[in-house]
Amino acid sequence: MPETRPDDVLPADLPDPVRAALLAPMVDHHCHGVRRDDPSRSEFELMITESGAPAPPGTTHFDTPVGAAIRRWCAPVLGLEPHASPAVYLSRRSELGAGEVNRRLLRAAGVAAFLVDTGLDAPGLLTPAEMGRLGGAAADEIVRLERIEQDVAEAGLSAVEYAGTLREELAARAARAAGLKSIAAYRCGLDFDPSRPSRGSVIAAAGRRLADPKRRLDDPVLVRHLLWAAVDVARERGLPLQFHCGFGDADVDLHRADPAVLTEFLRALAPIGVPVVLLHCYPYHRQAAYLASVFPHVYVDVGLALTHTAAGSARVVAELLELAPFHKQMFSSDCYGAAELCHLGALYHRRGLARAIAGRLAEGEWSPADAARIAHMIGSGNARRVYRL
Amino acid sequence: MPETRPDDVLPADLPDPVRAALLAPMVDHHCHGVRRDDPSRSEFELMITESGAPAPPGTTHFDTPVGAAIRRWCAPVLGLEPHASPAVYLSRRSELGAGEVNRRLLRAAGVAAFLVDTGLDAPGLLTPAEMGRLGGAAADEIVRLERIEQDVAEAGLSAVEYAGTLREELAARAARAAGLKSIAAYRCGLDFDPSRPSRGSVIAAAGRRLADPKRRLDDPVLVRHLLWAAVDVARERGLPLQFHCGFGDADVDLHRADPAVLTEFLRALAPIGVPVVLLHCYPYHRQAAYLASVFPHVYVDVGLALTHTAAGSARVVAELLELAPFHKQMFSSDCYGAAELCHLGALYHRRGLARAIAGRLAEGEWSPADAARIAHMIGSGNARRVYRL
Amino acid sequence: MPETRPDDVLPADLPDPVRAALLAPMVDHHCHGVRRDDPSRSEFELMITESGAPAPPGTTHFDTPVGAAIRRWCAPVLGLEPHASPAVYLSRRSELGAGEVNRRLLRAAGVAAFLVDTGLDAPGLLTPAEMGRLGGAAADEIVRLERIEQDVAEAGLSAVEYAGTLREELAARAARAAGLKSIAAYRCGLDFDPSRPSRGSVIAAAGRRLADPKRRLDDPVLVRHLLWAAVDVARERGLPLQFHCGFGDADVDLHRADPAVLTEFLRALAPIGVPVVLLHCYPYHRQAAYLASVFPHVYVDVGLALTHTAAGSARVVAELLELAPFHKQMFSSDCYGAAELCHLGALYHRRGLARAIAGRLAEGEWSPADAARIAHMIGSGNARRVYRL
Predict the structure, then answer these.
(1) Would the CB atoms of A363 and B311 count as touching at under 8 Å?
(2) Which of C55, C68, C283 is facing B287, going by the closest CB pair?
(3) How far is the C-alpha of C31 from the C-alpha of C245, rounded, in Å?
(4) Start and end of every Amidohydrolase-related domain (chains A, B, C) (predicted)?
(5) 3-state SS assignment for residue B276
(6) What is the DSSP string of A64-99?
(7) Burial class, B237, CB count within 10 angstroms (exposed 0-12 / middle 13-18 / buried 19+)
(8) Do B69 and A294 touch (CB under 8 A)?
(9) Under DSSP, is residue B26 helix (H, G, I), strand (E, B) or coil?
(10) Residue A364 to residue B82, Cβ atoms within 8 A
(11) CB C53, CB C295: distance < 8 Å
(12) Which one, of B234, B228, B298, lies nearest residue C250 by Cα?
């Protein structure tokens, strides 16, 4: 069986310009490195779930939307029939080896540029340059704020030195990056006080922080200080600031990751002009679409959500399209560890958008020319403009 | 090209009685005046977005769901081909002139009665009577509570006089109105203390308020006082009380405009019997539908949401239909400034409801007679009953 | 007209194994007894709404999604044409008598086992054994925690005796039950402090409680104590703990019944391993699906929501399927009072799942074998495993 080509994933009856726009290489404006080694079955099961734990006895993480999608859509990329069993799939994966598997799946995603969040601690992940090389794409780095802060916290500084060193480190890392990213949603929730903390409160909080530097950052004062320092750097360098929003792993308190609770902070940033990109957002993507519709500096994607809702993802795409301006939406796969997640993220973005477009064309709502233009904006144009690629 | 007739907007295969019920003139139970003058392009762009700001450089507010809908559905009403470009559309709009444009679009909406919220400060808006005359419809006024309060606050009263004068002014304005409306969602959020504030606390708050009367009302004590005064007047006169809920412009904190957080106030009103109408509600329209299903005095619409979700609006209609009793739903366009928003609101209400009905008929869920009856209830019957039109 | 057979409710074009899996008898893992007597029209109207009040003058609770569904789907089970009028339906219902009506509707539901929450005070409800006998099914009991607590509170104990007696009573009742259930969502909201309250605070709160024992439990300290006592019992006996989440009657503050606000309590239970089942959840079923996807001990259904969203329920099923692992979803009807609600719950579960499956098969997302397997897991397999039936 030949490798699946990206155009196999679209409905047959789209006008050619729309099809071409949907199949054009996209900017994956938020992803992570995939693993360079061959995982065991139990390792692979953990790579395809946001749960940090094995499935309950007698069950498997393959019995999930994303598990079924891997068997359906990734199996052919590895030369298997669709719906291969998990055992057959993983056997074939080992046979080909991680290098070839990663190359095939990243290429199948049809990506022009990867913007890679390098802030994860996991060992054995491909670098941005390697992601680009394997995927036939350009690659840039997204710097995770909390990773830099952790490095600074562990550097043996005094509380008085903390803020200055953090700012220098942020500036140095930002100089080589395409954007900055915050996971404040995981650390203190997005419902933090939007004001910039005072110098005194930062020094006091830094003193407590540095007494236990291995502990991960969760003090709201320091999270806010980190964000405002990042805003300063982002403004100087013209970089967007990404926020994890909505669902993720079991560490998040979902309702505190609703981007609506970030509104006051977004309002505070409006006069500054730093672009803010709300990532994932599920199940609060309608809230995110509203924010993108009323704040000129706010952008939105549903990255992680499409991979994990899989066969149900077209509805998520459709719901984002309800209110979000076409010039405010972006594509990301948020892949991490398993290259399958990159292929599926791109595939479900294209399929979901194709279905929404097909419906609008059938009802006469959009012209084919508009549909092609909108598909291009969301797939790459908006990201190229905002990230200055 | 002839003007579009309302029946062009419905699917072809509906039974005749259903089609007739959907095309029958509706009661637009919540709208605002449209502008009497010809806007420039930049002015028009701001009239079709809830964002108060221009689109970012290189983008346009026409690249939104509502922008695409104007090009698709309003262009033919002005004698253009569907999908006319923004430049062509606005040129034709100027050529016809605001008077003719407003007449065509308001007539195309197929409205029997406009209930017009007159509380906006914007100059150059048509009066209710003018809206009715241009649209070939009856017209009545909805009195905005916060507008009256602002007038009272600026009248140079003492804190002790404030409450009495406010009550008199409310009663006087209500005597000529079809309903009252609150934008408490914008001022202090809907999660306010549901109890009636004490006379002492109102006088104290009025003292602070009157020291800076130009500032808009946002003190929760005075918002609550205003609401309870409105409830008294509404009970005396048999008027419904409308609440803005859900999305709107950038001033709203979305999660605090969730009608679910109004539950305790709704519960407090249950024994009083004043009808409460939850407006717009997106993306919390399912929450609103629940409230309408358990509280006999609560009604619901998705007015503003249909215009702005446009090609995606059928899903919003469908979600409201999931739980809301048929005798509790109403239609509103919430048009403001641009007459296009009135036509689109009515059009997407009819199209969304038509699609939901077509599905239910195809699946055998409803009989055609029930479908026609329900379309009539939602389009006008419920509003005529509740507003006593 | 012959009685409707369950297979009449499915689309015609499903593969045979999928159809068989959907039609197989299910485990209704959460329901209540139906009434043994013949209701009047006004009584019946109250049995088919979550509102505790009659519909407003000039309207009827039959003009709701569930009302239309009764006329469509239950009328044939009673030998009437679909879409019979309410008067004809209720006349036929009286003619047949409650015994025969209950037998027909419970049989039509196609249930293999009822797990019956016996904690409601309403008189005249069938016992679990009677539900099973009429429905041709096995039957087990689900013990409602707040019912036991009420009995203990009214037993004339001292504050010091309260905790011990409650624990004994819980253990005694759990010994004969298939699971435990909490309605904390109704009593103090799900956003309670997740920690186990201290012995001292429980005795103090019990003192206040026992001073007014007829009042229903709403003290958060005692609700938490009850829950932690239930967790101890559940762990000892291997029982799941059900939580009412999302919509219900007018007593619930909807946003405080969002299962997302239960996250910290779920996290606290993770190491203990007691299965937690989130019931109903609408409109927060996506939040519940997320919780089921990241916590190995968390399960989910949309029981009550399907009956009440009726013709719109397929979307709810589809949204649950977006993120919830297949091995984490269950079926329940949550019927109470009217046997119609049991038939409709089962019918809309089968129809909604059938539609989701048909879509996935048409798009090649799932294989027929997987579809059949997943239908079986959700319909009965997961419940048999978790409740150890």
Answers:
(1) yes
(2) C283
(3) 15
(4) 219-389
(5) strand
(6) SHHHHHIIIIIHHHTTPPTT--HHHHHHHHHHH-HH
(7) middle
(8) no
(9) strand
(10) yes
(11) no
(12) B298
Q: In what order do the strands lie in the sheet with A179-182?
A: A26-31, A111-117, A138-144, A179-182, A241-245, A276-280, A298-300
- Which one of B245, B281, B294 makes the best mutation probe of the C interface by having the most chain C beta carbons within 10 Å? B294
What distance in Å separates the CA atoms of residue C193 and residue B309, rounded to the nearest whole number? 39
pLDDT tens by residue, B314-325: 999 999 999 999
Chain C contact set for A83 (CB, 8 A)? 366-367, 369-370
ipTM, interface predicted TM-score of the complex: 0.97
- Chain A residues in contact with chain C using a Cβ-Cβ cutoff of 8 Å: 49-56, 58-61, 63-65, 68-69, 72, 82-83, 247, 249-250, 253-255, 282-283, 308-313, 315-316
Phi and psi at B69, nearest 5°, equal -70, -35
Closest CA to C116 of C32, C232, C236: C32
The DSSP secondary structure of C133-177, one letter per residue, reads HHHTSEEEEEEEHHHHHHHHHTT---HHHHHHHHHHHHHHHHTT-
**Residue A129, strand partner residues:** none
Tell me the three state secondary structure of residue C93.
helix
pLDDT at B11: 83
- Rounded average pLDDT over A361-366: 96
**Amino acid B174: pLDDT:** 97
Query: How many whole angstroms separate alpha carbon B126 and alpha carbon B139?
Result: 12
- Report, as an integer, the average pLDDT of C11-22: 93
Max alpha carbon distance in chain B (Å)?
Answer: 65
Average pLDDT over residues C321-339: 98
- Specify the 3-state DSSP secondary structure of B142: strand
pLDDT grade, residue B2 (50/70/90)?
very low
* pLDDT recorded at residue A20: 97
pLDDT tens, residue by residue, C332-374: 999 999 999 999 999 999 999 999 999 999 999 999 999 999 9
Q: Name the neighbours of A, counting chains with at least 3 Cβ pairs within 8 A.
A: B, C
Question: Which residue reads 């709160």 in tokens?
Answer: C205
Backbone torsions φ then ψ of A148, nearest 5 degrees: -65, -45
3-state secondary structure of A27: strand
- Looking at the predicted structure, is the pLDDT value of residue B83 above 90? yes
| Residues of chain A with C-beta less than 8 angstroms from the C-beta of B58 | 327, 385
Separation between Cα atoms, residue C40 and residue C366, nearest integer Å: 47
Contact A364/B12 with Cβ under 8 angstroms? no
Q: Is the CA virtual torsion C210, C211, C217, C223 positive or negative? A: negative
Q: Which listed CATH number (3.40.109.10, 3.50.40.10, 3.20.20.140, 3.40.50.620) goes with B6-386?
A: 3.20.20.140
The per-type count for chain C, helices as H runs and strands as E runs, is 18, 7
What are A68's two structure tokens? 């079924």
pLDDT in tens, B104-131: 999 999 999 999 999 987 889 999 999 9
Cβ-Cβ contacts under 8 Å, A366 against chain B: 68, 72, 83, 311
The answer to whether B46 and B52 have CB atoms below 8 angstroms apart is: yes
Alpha carbon of C133: minimum distance to chain B alpha carbons (Å): 30
